[in-house]
Write a structure and sequence with these properties.
Distance between the termini: 34 Å
Number of helices: 14
CATH topology of the largest domain: Aspartate Aminotransferase, domain 2
Structural class: alpha/beta
Radius of gyration: 21 Å
Order of helices and strands: EHHEHEHEHEEEHEHEEHHHHEEHEEHH
Shape: globular
Number of domains: 2
Helix content: 40-55%
CATH superfamily of the largest domain: Type I PLP-dependent aspartate aminotransferase-like (Major domain)
């Protein structure tokens, strides 16, 4: 059946009808008073989502653009930075930092395992000369479904006294609490096609006062991604360059939806769906890639040598998209996204389709309906 595609990947995520209708509106002038009102409302709601009184700016770009902006606005060539690498995106931020001639020191963990906060503590405490200028951390590693202990790592960075913490919250913001002001996070980057429930094309950078202070002495080249330009414009409910007007209309709609639902309810929904998905995977006799105590609320990675065959059957028979493995995990895992505009019904539907795929490839180590039953039990008890 045409037009029944169901996205169960960690981005792009499903887009609600209200946002789709907003995308279809006729554009208006981006320097008009009407659009200033839209930016003012969106900015206020972005601050609410980030749990901050500080600046949150919008860029026309992806989450990678937002992270690159966070790196180049507050650092200078030769600066010593510590980067957490336990997946594709931690590796990416190390590569971006190296591209700008930063002195990168990696703290690594095996893909599928969380970063060890103690390694950050040891490295930061050993830096008695205070040469480390920043720690760069991926909160929720999209490639593996692993959640890193940002709160503890951030506490060690704060104890250092001088280093900034720059955070990739691309698949954590909007799924679990990232309280910027309470934790004193210096910069947070995210992207529209994840928990924001909007198509790709917008990046967001939340910036705290310590990062702005570092901006004054940062010397890396920047123009389009110069965050001071965005702050100056945002303070006037405007934008420094032509923004994607209709994406911002869609964002206005989804942020209104999120405010109606409330932060606590959003976080509880994602936690419930994560637990239900993991319970279902176990009941189907499959192995979870991330450990229980470091499981992302937005993605569940599942180990299987038949990963690509399972994905193909689910897509062909049910028009449901599951994500594959990345880099060395290609063909070894598939990933179920439960982020943003995803309901309990969607989880049950996806699990049913996966069970059919398993039956088709000859898996027999589970009782019929076991996955759905396990997920339904979580929903009933939540």
């Amino acid at each position: 059946m045409d037009d029944k595609l169901m996205l169960m990947i960690p981005g792009p995520t499903p887009v609600p009808e209200q946002a789709l209708l907003a995308l279809a509106k006729h554009p208006i002038g981006h320097r008009s008073k009407e659009f200033e009102g839209t930016i003012a409302e969106v900015t206020e709601n972005l601050k609410w989502l980030h749990q901050t009184q500080h600046d949150v700016v919008m860029l026309a770009g992806s989450g990678t653009a937002a992270m690159e902006a966070a790196i180049i606005n507050f650092l200078s060539a030769g600066d010593r930075v510590v980067v957490g690498c336990n997946g594709k995106f931690g590796d990416r931020w190390a590569e971006v930092a190296e591209a700008y001639n930063l002195n990168v020191e990696r703290i690594t963990a095996e893909w599928g395992q969380p970063l060890d906060p103690e390694q950050f503590r040891e490295k930061l405490e050993a830096d008695t000369n205070k040469d480390i200028k920043a720690a760069i951390v991926t909160h929720s590693e999209t490639s593996t479904g692993v959640l890193n202990d940002l709160e503890t790592i951030n506490r060690h960075v704060k104890a250092h006294g001088k280093a900034l913490i720059l955070v990739d919250a691309v698949t954590s913001l909007g799924a679990l609490s990232v309280p910027m002001d309470e934790w004193g996070i210096d910069a947070i980057a995210s992207g529209s096609q994840k928990g924001y429930m909007v198509p790709p094309g917008l990046g967001f950078v939340a910036v705290g006062p310590k990062a702005w202070e570092a901006y004054k002495t940062a010397t890396l080249p920047k123009y389009y991604l110069d965050l001071a330009k965005y702050k100056k414009a945002t303070d006037k409910s405007s934008s420094p360059f032509t923004p994607p007007i209709n994406l911002i209309f869609a964002l206005q709609a989804t942020l209104q939806m999120m405010r109606r639902e409330g932060l606590d309810a959003i976080f509880a929904r994602h936690a419930r769906q994560m637990e239900a998905t993991r319970a279902a995977v176990r009941a189907l006799g499959l192995k979870l890639f991330a450990p229980d105590d470091a499981a992302a609320l937005s993605i569940t990675a599942v180990e299987s040598s038949d990963a690509e065959q399972i994905r193909a059957i689910v897509k062909k028979q049910f028009d449901i998209s599951l994500a594959g493995g990345q880099n060395q995990l290609k063909g070894k895992v598939f990933r179920i996204g439960h982020l943003g505009f995803v309901s309990d019904r969607d989880i049950l539907t996806a699990i049913s389709a996966i069970e059919v795929a398993l039956r088709e490839i000859g898996a027999e180590n589970f009782a019929p309906g076991a996955g759905v039953a396990a997920a339904a039990k979580v929903f009933a008890e939540s």
